[in-house]
């Protein structure tokens, strides 16, 4: 549904040759070709990363593999009530059901090793088990490609000038952390794709300016699927509900919200009902190990600075992951992030009051609130369950499509005629520099994993 037809529509939309009267022969840097080029470059980096990152050493990858293994080999879901069980045992099953099918198709029977807990050299991975891991990682890359296709469509729906689209799509696809997470076995990938699809649906309703009862119900069903992807995707619920309320006719707002809510619960509630009866709570807490987690009240009263610094720490680790501290000093990462953050905030503030189409104002607020709700949810989890989540910048990737929307809604509206001729001079240089940055980043990552391999072999 979201695959080749969308990509074809993205690449066929806004034919500049017809709009500007320029020749029909299109050069390689023409915006019609660029979405496919950028997605191909992303896929090349992500596929390289599937080999550069040591098997079972992605973020929580052993636990994701164990979940899939129990479905594929044992034919059951992990027991969410087992306090000593899998770290991700309470995660929704939709991603694991898919990758378990890949596991079963390879005929692999070897159980994954918990590389985070093991202190002895790890058992060799059998050829079939290695093939299963490679194919599951390849599925993650496919999910990343689909995410970029959806983001490209979002830019078309918003009406972003073709001259800006390559930069925004490249900012997402050439983001090293996105390439990293989409090259390992992790349900973060299906959560990011779901967030992008939900973002497209919400933007479409804002763009249309109206929502019927049927559309409200369909949106509720779509958002309800997020409960089966990963819990952080629930940050989309209040945003979608507000959009249904704002775009419904005045006399049908209550009915629209009711249709949305009932449809959402019809899909989302079942997983949490299952958790309630098996684990004793619809939102069970868990600890993978003994961890001296201070109470929320103690953190707030004794260390308010830690709470205030959490959003900055999260955003910083979205650029420099926690494990990269051995090769990239965190001070450097924070300095780079601070410079980028100042420029970004200054640009958003300057552009916030710029005039444009009527739906751009609500779109800016919707995107900003969505990002804020996601950050607040991660902070709540960090304060109440595991303070170490503040170094997991990958949790912010579910908000990346909404960040793209925020930037897109603040960009100046330029005319098609002449704009592309001006931008295309600089695009190869900008994208080339970005690709070189990604190459340097992955060389460092590969070096780190090679060092790690020598340590555990």
Outline the secondary-structure elements:
Blueprint: H1 4-12, H2 16-20, H3 34-52, H4 61-74, H5 94-106, H6 127-158, H7 165-173, H8 176-181, H9 188-208, H10 213-224, H11 236-247, H12 253-279, H13 296-302, H14 304-317, H15 330-352, H16 360-384, H17 400-410, H18 416-423, H19 427-456
Helix pairs in contact: 1-6, 3-6, 3-7, 3-19, 4-5, 5-6, 6-7, 6-9, 6-17, 9-11, 9-17, 10-11, 10-12, 11-12, 11-16, 14-15, 14-16, 16-17
**Total count of strands:** 0
Summed up, the helix count is 19
Catalogue the unreliable spans. Answer: 1-29
- Beta-strand share of residues: under 5%
Q: Give the number of domains.
A: 1
- Specify Rg, calculated over alpha carbons: 23 Å
Series of secondary-structure elements, N-terminal to C-terminal: HHHHHHHHHHHHHHHHHHH
Large-scale geometry:
globular
Distance between the termini: 44 Å
Report the sheet with the most strands, covering strand number, pairing sense and barrel closure: none
Q: For the residues shown, what is the average pLDDT?
A: 78
Class per helix and strand makeup: mainly alpha
Short description:
With 457 residues, the chain is mainly alpha-helical.
Word description of this protein:
- The protein has one domain (30-112, 127-281, 311-456).
- 65% of the residues lie in helices and 0% in strands.
- The protein has 19 helices and no strands.
- It has helices spanning 4-12, 16-20, 34-52, 61-74, 94-106, 127-158, 165-173, 176-181, 188-208, 213-224, 236-247, 253-279, 296-302, 304-317, 330-352, 360-384, 400-410, 416-423, 427-456.
- The protein is globular.
């Amino acid at each position: 549904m979201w695959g080749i037809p969308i990509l074809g529509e993205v690449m066929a939309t806004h034919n500049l040759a017809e709009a500007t009267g320029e020749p029909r022969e299109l050069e390689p840097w023409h915006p019609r070709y660029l979405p496919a080029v950028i997605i191909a470059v992303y896929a090349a980096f992500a596929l390289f990363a599937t080999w550069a990152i040591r098997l079972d050493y992605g973020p929580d990858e052993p636990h994701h593999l164990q979940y899939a293994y129990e479905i594929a080999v044992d034919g059951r879901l992990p027991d969410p009530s087992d306090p000593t069980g899998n770290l991700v045992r309470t995660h929704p099953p939709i991603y694991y059901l898919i990758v378990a099918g890949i596991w079963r198709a390879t005929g692999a029977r070897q159980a994954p090793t918990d590389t985070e807990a093991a202190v002895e050299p790890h058992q060799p991975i059998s050829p079939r088990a290695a093939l299963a891991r490679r194919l599951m990682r390849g599925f993650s890359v496919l999910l990343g490609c689909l995410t970029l296709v959806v983001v490209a469509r979002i830019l078309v729906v918003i009406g972003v000038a073709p001259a800006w689209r390559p930069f925004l799509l490249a900012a997402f696809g050439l983001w090293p952390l996105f390439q990293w997470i989409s090259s390992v076995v992790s349900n973060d990938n299906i959560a990011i794709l779901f967030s992008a699809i939900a973002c497209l649906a919400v933007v479409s309703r804002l763009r249309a300016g109206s929502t019927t009862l049927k559309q409200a119900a369909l949106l509720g069903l779509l958002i309800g699927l997020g409960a089966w992807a990963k819990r952080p995707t629930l940050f989309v619920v209040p945003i979608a509900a507000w959009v249904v309320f704002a775009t419904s006719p005045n006399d049908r707002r209550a009915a629209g919200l009711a249709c949305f809510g009932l449809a959402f619960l019809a899909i989302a509630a079942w997983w949490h009902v299952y958790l309630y009866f098996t684990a004793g709570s619809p939102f069970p807490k868990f600890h993978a190990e003994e961890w001296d987690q201070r109470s929320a009240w103690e953190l707030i009263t004794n260390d308010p600075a830690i709470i205030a610094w959490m959003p900055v720490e999260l955003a910083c680790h979205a650029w420099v992951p926690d494990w990269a501290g051995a090769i990239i000093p965190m001070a450097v990462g924070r300095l780079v992030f601070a410079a980028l953050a100042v420029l970004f905030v200054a640009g958003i503030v300057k552009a916030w009051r710029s005039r444009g189409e009527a739906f751009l104002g609500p779109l800016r607020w919707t995107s900003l609130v969505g990002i804020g709700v996601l950050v607040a949810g991660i902070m709540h989890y960090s304060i109440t369950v595991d303070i170490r989540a503040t170094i997991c910048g990958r949790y912010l990737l579910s908000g990346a499509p909404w960040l793209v929307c925020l930037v897109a809604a603040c960009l100046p509206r330029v005319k098609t005629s002449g704009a592309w001729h001006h931008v295309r001079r600089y695009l190869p240089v900008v994208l080339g520099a970005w690709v070189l940055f990604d190459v340097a980043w992955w060389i460092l990552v590969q070096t780190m994993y090679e060092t790690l391999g020598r340590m555990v072999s």
